[in-house]
């Protein structure tokens, strides 16, 4: 039976999906990170959980054949997606041709996980980024059933979730297309839940009516783009959503911890997939810096998709939908410039053990307040913004000292 050290476990849930006796469940530790737990009364010692575990098995990785900057020609798609709209167009193409798509959806703020979609009307559910660990549930089993029935399947997720799927399947399927993202790492759902439920605005609101966004697009005309990062909380009332709280990533404790990497799952800090070589047919991300410090006329305030096409299958599907986009061929060196996890994972901060201890004992918000690196992220972000707005160096130095003093106090 599976018995990995916690720092080696991806949380991909391949073992849970493959167990013929449903003897494996995912249990939270004190900070909320989820790990497999075996019910030995059900376990028959078949060893399937070990055979599918991506940590215990090697899978083929492929260097990108081509690197592209991509923006949908349909402006309505761009405004409703996280970046340049590539994933949305690809998913629509698959379903329109009789296939199915698996991706991460938010059913409410504490129920974020993978679902199966076979209708284009439901594709909005898997749009946009979710900066939390997605629950795979039993979607590997569902995907296998679809593949065995001859359906075309697009499975999207983090690289480790794709490796979990490939391990679970244990054979190649010509009708499977995989797409991973350039993953920053994932915090646990428990931390997000604690953050949202601390807001007085959601007190006495049924949890199923509370929703969050981690990034959104505003119709701005500034030189800094209209993609916003942070935590925006909304309450559903009938057919309508009412935003009750909105904090950017320099203010919100959950997002500050995410951005510094201190709240990420332990194995994210030694991720074997944070590299050039990819496990999926296609890799998607934001093409940060394009048109600013990377020379290109393809600059869009609403975002540009970075697409790595890694396999012959990926090339085939890319060519099928490429006419829907404005496309520029770019280099991998440009791609990784502002996507550090294309070359290395986040470093493990010296304060992490202390942060986790406080988090277990007193919760996320207290742990964030007590962590210097989280404060430094806030200060540096504010100072960088001031410099972009051409505040004098003297003014920046004065404010920097003031921020440090506030953190000491």
Kindly describe this structure.
- This protein has helices spanning 14-18, 48-52, 75-78, 86-96, 139-148, 159-169, 189-197, 253-260, 312-321, 332-337, 352-362, 364-369, 372-388, 393-408, and strands spanning 24-28, 34-38, 66-72, 100-108, 111-117, 153-157, 176-181, 210-217, 227-237, 240-248, 282-286, 305-309, 325-330.
- Helices cover 32% and strands 22% of the residues.
- It is globular, with a radius of gyration of 21 Å.
- Helix 8 packs across helix 13 (372-388) and helix 13 (372-388) packs antiparallel against helix 14 (393-408).
- With 409 residues, it is α+β, with helices and mostly antiparallel strands.
- It folds into three domains: 6-52, Alpha-Beta Plaits (2-Layer Sandwich), CATH 3.30.70.20; 59-370, no CATH class; 372-409.
Write the topology of this structure.
Elements: H1 14-18, E1 24-28, E2 34-38, H2 48-52, E3 66-72, H3 75-78, H4 86-96, E4 100-108, E5 111-117, H5 139-148, E6 153-157, H6 159-169, E7 176-181, H7 189-197, E8 210-217, E9 227-237, E10 240-248, H8 253-260, E11 282-286, E12 305-309, H9 312-321, E13 325-330, H10 332-337, H11 352-362, H12 364-369, H13 372-388, H14 393-408
Helix pairs in contact: 8-13, 13-14
């Amino acid at each position: 039976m599976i018995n990995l050290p916690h720092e080696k476990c991806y949380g991909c849930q391949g073992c849970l999906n493959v167990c013929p006796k449903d003897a494996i469940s995912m249990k939270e530790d004190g900070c909320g990170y989820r790990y497999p737990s075996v019910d030995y009364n059900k376990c028959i010692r078949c060893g399937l959980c070990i055979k599918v575990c991506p940590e215990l098995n090697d899978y083929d990785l492929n260097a990108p054949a081509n690197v592209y900057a991509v923006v949908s020609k349909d402006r309505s798609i761009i405004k409703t997606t996280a970046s340049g709209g590539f994933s949305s167009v690809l998913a629509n193409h698959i379903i329109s041709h009789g296939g199915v798509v698996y991706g991460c959806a938010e059913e409410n703020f504490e129920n974020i996980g993978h679902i199966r979609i076979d209708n284009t009307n439901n594709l909005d559910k898997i749009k946009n980024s979710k900066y939390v660990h997605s629950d795979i549930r039993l979607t590997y089993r569902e995907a296998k059933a679809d593949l065995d029935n001859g359906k075309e399947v697009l499975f999207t997720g983090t690289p480790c979730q794709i490796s979990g799927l490939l391990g679970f399947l244990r054979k190649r399927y010509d009708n499977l297309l995989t797409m991973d993202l350039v993953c920053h790492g994932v915090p646990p759902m428990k931390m997000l839940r604690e953050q949202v439920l601390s807001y007085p605005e959601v007190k006495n609101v049924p949890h199923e009516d509370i929703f969050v966004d981690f990034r959104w697009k505003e119709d701005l005309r500034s030189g800094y783009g209209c993609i916003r990062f942070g935590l925006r909380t909304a309450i559903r009332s009938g057919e309508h959503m009412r935003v009750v709280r909105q904090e950017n990533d320099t203010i919100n404790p959950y997002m500050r911890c995410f951005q510094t990497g201190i709240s990420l799952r332990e194995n994210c800090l030694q991720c074997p997939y944070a590299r050039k070589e990819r496990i999926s047919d296609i890799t998607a991300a934001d093409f940060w810096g394009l048109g600013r410090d990377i020379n290109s006329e393809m600059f869009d305030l609403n975002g540009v998709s970075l697409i790595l096409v890694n396999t012959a299958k990926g090339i085939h599907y890319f060519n099928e939908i490429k006419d829907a986009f404005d496309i520029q061929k770019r280099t991998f060196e440009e791609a990784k410039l502002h996507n550090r996890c294309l070359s290395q994972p986040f470093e493990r901060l010296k304060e992490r053990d202390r942060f986790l201890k406080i988090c277990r004992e007193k919760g996320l918000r207290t742990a964030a307040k007590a962590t210097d690196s989280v404060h430094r992220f806030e200060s540096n972000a504010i100072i960088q913004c001031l410099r972009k707005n051409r505040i004098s160096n003297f003014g920046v130095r004065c404010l920097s000292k003031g921020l440090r003093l506030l953190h000491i106090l």
